[in-house]
Specification:
By secondary structure, the chain is mainly beta. The protein folds into two domains: 123 residues; 152 residues. The chain has no helices and 21 strands. It has a five-stranded mixed barrel with strand order 12-14-13-15-16. Strand 11 and strand 12 form a beta hairpin. The N and C termini lie far apart (94 Å).
């Protein structure tokens, strides 16, 4: 029954003929909630106006004797005089499209059949689902997000667990996946996609490389300052690879490189990056347009802006000199770059330079 003044009362129809014992009001939810000590699976009812009541599923058929609302916690809490290990139940009482004055009770560990909708309060941003440490049961979670108006951070389960896809979604604001897993193949890393990725803005890689199929990459070596494009190709230099030596296409093997010959030091097209690779195995080399370390002729001093060219003395090595004016037509075809740093010379010196060819 209801009354506008506590004097005149009007009978109202309850959601069920249960033993209703306690009722409370939530101004934040605009919702009355009542609990009962009798009934089967329906010992909760709710109403937006105290007139029309809807039965709700209680967490258990206990004798519920009191219910209250906490605006600070955005939480309904009810207590019972019966039950084993579960005489308290709680609910956010959030509204959703399927239930305009919805009330969902929770009670410890439960198994739910069918779709369960959980919507956090206006002051909350997330629902946390934590699995048991060392558990063996697999599970899948499907998340259908509402429009996101600010940055969000998603903490996902271990990558061996199953995480269902979100389907076609549009996200507004920065999205962050927190993980320390490095990508070593197409099936590893914090984010794995079986389809293509379309990017409207720029891509920034905080790591040293962006690698395609393990054969081509954009790479940055912070220890040397080298950066640019690399390809992996067969080492046919006749020796274990030496960092900084010049190479060009092999004359005897397909898809392979050999050292630029001192007897014909023309058209260098790559610089070895990966040292210690056996002859016949694949190695990483720098492509033209990159900033690389060149292996200089022993005792050959270098000055910034010097002209770098393939050595006419030692296979694969580099010599430097002041830029000729005008450049000699013959020696110009041995050019491989310009020095970015000075070096006094010595044995097996590596000099950073801009690598280009004619």
């Amino acid at each position: 029954m209801t009354s506008p003044d506590g004097i005149t009362w009007t009978l109202r129809s309850s959601a069920a003929d249960n033993g209703w014992f306690s009722v409370c009001w939530s101004p934040e939810r605009s919702l009355f909630v009542a609990v009962a000590f009798s009934g089967t699976g329906n010992r909760v009812m709710t109403s937006p106006d105290g007139i029309t009541w809807t039965a709700r599923s209680s967490a258990a058929d206990n004798d519920w004797y009191s219910v209250c609302w906490s605006p600070e916690r955005s939480l309904f809490v009810a207590v019972a005089s019966t039950g084993t290990g579960g005489r308290v139940m709680s609910s956010r009482g959030r509204q959703d499209a399927a239930s305009p004055d919805g009330f969902v009770a929770t009670l410890g560990a439960n198994t739910f059949t069918g779709i369960q909708t959980v919507q956090a309060a206006a002051t909350q941003d997330a629902v946390k689902i934590a699995g048991r440490a060392g558990g063996t049961s697999s599970y899948a979670v499907t998340v259908t997000p509402l429009a996101l108006s600010a940055s969000r951070t998603w903490s996902l389960p271990d990558r061996d667990d199953t995480f269902a896809g979100l389907g076609a979604q549009t996200f507004t604001g920065q999205q962050t996946i927190t993980d320390t897993t490095d990508a070593t193949s197409k099936d590893t890393g914090s984010l794995v996609t079986e389809g293509g990725i379309g990017v409207e803005k720029s891509i920034y890689a905080g790591g040293p490389s962006i690698t395609a199929a393990g054969q081509v990459r954009f790479h940055y070596d912070s220890s040397t300052g080298e950066r640019g494009t690399q390809v992996k190709i067969s080492n046919r230099t006749g020796e274990t690879s030496v960092k900084g030596k010049l190479v060009h296409p092999s004359s005897t093997n397909d898809n392979a490189v050999e050292l630029v010959s001192a007897a014909s030091p023309y058209t260098p097209c790559g610089v070895i990056y990966e040292a210690g690779i056996a002859n016949g195995s694949d190695m990483w080399i720098w492509c033209p347009g990159s900033i690389v370390e060149f292996l200089m002729e022993n005792s050959d001093a270098t000055t910034r802006q010097d002209w770098l060219r393939a050595s006419a003395t030692t296979n694969g090595r580099v010599q430097s000199s002041a830029v000729p004016t005008p450049p000699n037509a013959d020696s110009h075809f041995t050019e491989c770059g310009h020095a970015l740093e000075s070096n006094a010379g010595g044995t097996d010196q590596l000099v950073l330079g801009f690598f280009h060819t004619l």
